[in-house]
Amino acid sequence: MNRYSIQILEYANTDSAPVSGQIASAHNGGFMNLTMSYQLIEGNGHKILVDCGVNYEEPASKGICEAYAFQNTKMPKEVLARVGLTPEDIDTVIVTHCHFDHMGGLKLFPNAHFYIQKDELLNSLAALSLPKKFNRAKNAFLPCDIKTACEYVCDGRMTLLDGDQQIFDGIRVVALPMGHSYCGQIILVEVEEDGRKVEKILSGDVAYVQENVLGLNNDGVYVPFTAVGSPVTVVEQIDKAYALAGYDIKNLIFNHEVRNYKTYESTTYEDGLHVATVVR
Asked: Is 144 left (phi over 0), alpha (psi -120 to 50) or beta?
């Protein structure tokens, strides 16, 4: 069996995320804490990131982070130093979707090859041509990020995937069209845990927080959230990811869930950010 370790690297957080944006129908729910993170997979000769954060030196990226009230935002160089790595060490980045907080750091990994779903990138590119009245169809991704991705495709640094694919031994992706984004993908990593084979699901934004999966007050009813697709598609994709995780919430790794740092062994730094170890 391939041996992979998985860590969650937090690069920013906020205490000002509207509850109703993350949990549909939670009207007048006030605000909640969210984490911004990407995952590091190491093993089998690879150092892989799932998503790549933001580039705070890019004015558009910095501006949208401030608009979303990000706090303690750190560049990948600072974040990776906490686990003894540099951006140059990363050989692969698997992008779950085109939103600014997942794809904004494309320029910061000079030695990486990138993977994204073809329909995600091309439909996001097409959305940029829509008139102003359709801005809600494109409000979470930046033209500068889409431009960089297109340049990487032309330069041979980014592979456009057409649906479910095996990326490396023990690492595969499953496409999720027209859910949270135009065609996101989740990443399944085969690991050994307690002497048995388990697939950990790095879920991108198939769900923001545990309530999307477990329901309000753990009632078992999936709860949709902000998406380009329909609420029905969103909850169907939540169920698909949860089923692939064996209906075990610990096997479903969230990008924005602050409970990550209690669910898994974690280190808290002076700036309030965390590194969590899912699998050693």
From this structure: alpha
Q: Are 203 and 255 in contact (CB under 8 A)?
A: yes
Which pLDDT band, with edges at 50, 70 and 90, does 25 fall under?
confident
Q: Count how many residues are written for the chain.
A: 280
Cβ contacts of residue 243 below 8 Å, gap of 6+?
Answer: none
Residue in 189, 211, 200 with CA at minimum distance from that of residue 258: 211
Q: What is the DSSP letter of 204?
A: T
pLDDT digits (tens, 9 = 90+) for 88-104: 999 999 999 999 999 99
User: Sheet containing 165-168: which strands, arranged edge to edge?
Assistant: 165-168, 171-177, 183-193, 196-202, 252-253
Asked whether the beta carbons of 15 and 68 are under 8 A apart, the reply is no
Region 152-181: what's the mean pLDDT? 98
Q: Are 106 and 52 in contact (CB under 8 A)?
A: yes
Describe the crossing of helices 59-67 and 143-155 by its angle, rounded to 10 degrees: 140
